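Cross-posted from the bioinformatics board.
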Amino acid sequence: MMHLDCPWCGYRNVSEFGYLGELRERPDPATTTREEWRAYLYLRRNPAGRLEEGWYHRAGCRRYFEAVRDTTDNTVSETRPPTRHPDGHDEGEHATAGDLDVTSVSV
Ligand SMILES: [Zn+2]
């Protein structure tokens, strides 16, 4: 049975978490080609070995965090609060409503 050490809740069964995939830098939508955007959305490296991943504690604190997992044996060597944001903000910066371009949102 696999367990994860949530930075806020401690060790919990992996069934409480949602897997978000490998941590990757989000490309700039203003300069990214369609092929690059498609690769970002759908293509995965799927390495055998150390992988930095995003997880979500959906049945607990409902917060996002990062984990370093060896994909060959599922050992998790580290979990930590998020250190990067997909929109390029540095650690410690927080996105605000002013950062969002709400004029381009369609419903
Ligand atoms: Zn938690």
